[in-house]
Request: fold
Amino acid sequence: MRYSKYFIPTLREVPADAEVVSHKLMARAGMIKKLASGIYSYLPLGVVMIKKVEEIVRQCMNEAGAIELVMPSVQPAELWQESGRWDFYGKELLRIKDRHNRDFCYGPTHEEVITDIIRSYISSYKALPINLYQIQTKFRDEVRPRFGLMRGREFIMKDAYSFDVDDAGANESYKKMYDAYCKIFERCGLRYKVVEADSGAIGGSYSHEFMVLADTGEDFVISCDSCDYSANVEKAPLKNEYKPFAGEMKPAEDIETPGAKTVAEVAEFLKVPDAAIIKTMVLNVDDKIIAVCVRGDHELNLAKVKNYFDASIVDFATPAEIFDHTGSPMGFCGPCDIKIPVYGDFAVTEMGNYCVGANSKETHKINVNHGRDFQFEAVDDFRNAEAGDNCVACDGKYEITKGIEVGHIFKLGTKYSSSMNAMFLDNNGKRNPFVMGCYGIGVTRVVSAAIEQNHDEKGIKWPVHLAPFKICVLPLAMKDKDVVETAENIYKNLTDRGIEVLLDDRDERAGVKFNDAELIGIPLRVVVGKKTLADGKVEIGVRSTGESSETAVDDCCEEIVRKLQELSA
Ligand code: ATP
Ligand code: MG
Reply:
């Protein structure tokens, strides 16, 4: 590719809303342009990057026996009503109407559509197992689109769906995808970790996430310091190791706490640690209002609450709902004398004489004890695991790191096939629902994650397999015939070998060419300058290590190919 005939609109300035390095560098390297919040145009270099990831994904999916198809992005509401998700998917589902006033949505995921395809064509066990995938644009109306392609509203996903005759078959399909995903992320040159995950809105019985470890990740990964257990914080379970409170119960009393509302403020006011306070969270669980108590220094885990109640939607109650059900203003709720069921996290069982909200403004109750002052409906694991908590699998302790979720695999079971009546005849002539799995990779998010892991202050450092061009050739004096001719020859020689080369044939200063090559992150560069050429040499530089060396012009293409192989190994 000739730079002068291509379109790489590099920028010096970073867009004001770019918070993370991948977003900054993608915008500066002319890969993406924002159109609206979370919605981006992929500029030519961005498209090349996306295609690189897609190529790796496609290869590994095909090798694993999955078959490619493409489903529509716009989906009719009827299918979502059949599966029951039309009412439960929430605000992330972009709902639209056609000219006949019929409801549609822009697909955030495709379980319904694929299940409809399979039930239409497959009626016998003989056609199973089957795994179909697509690489396609999704839309999710994210609450907080941010970080460029990392959390977009419109983004590209590879989604695959497997259909099996039974659970054992489904486990095998799951394992194949697990292995294929490992291969994909290895080929992409990413440092990643596979963790146990919560199944979220997709549902199903178990799942794993593939996390690229990076400080800018939005997910928290819990891992054990002595065994290889690791899980998303949404999932990571905690043991109930708490002994019931056995101390002497003091008389409870209401006290005024002017200006103190948050745990930190109340703790400061009372001169007690955060752990001596109980937070009472009022929640709306599938339209039923309940309260959950957790220790002041712990975080409530909504995914655990959702799973405990096997609920479709769990959200914090609105101030009006809180007032209606507890009589309390927002921020002063407590578990005593309220008419809704109160659940407790395991950790509160060992607490005694603690402080809670008194259900009236700027008032708290101290020396409260469950069993005496109020009753828990039940206690369970309702909080986030933290660094230092005991591992569920061994005697080790949890550690916490940040990760970017690039892939997610789910064992769905018969959730969709049952609700959508997708059945096949087994070898005894009996009708059974298909046993399903689904498997997603955020293709555009992988590009972001790769940059998060591979960059320096000058720009991107593409792992070789992902690099949009493997080599850039930089003639530094466009008016010098020898320089230009040598650069053209090298460009032709390498291109003829099937290598992706960018020839920077712009009439620009050397500094501009160097900066752009480093920003774009091309793994190898060949500098053709007047001075070295006078000695019959060119300079070959390696982006990842910053090393450079001079080579005779005649040998340079061989040397480049050798270096490229070295980098690819
Ligand atoms: P997250 O928790 O990050 O919102 P998710 O659990 O909703 O992700 P899935 O439904 O499992 O995501 O989707 C499969 C994959 O699609 C994810 O692993 C991720 O790589 C990608 N993905 C999901 N949401 C987005 C988004 N808003 N922007 C870019 N990629 C996304
Ligand atoms: Mg999501």
The longest strand covers residues 398-413. The radius of gyration is 29 Å. Residues 334 and 491 are 73 Å apart (CA to CA).
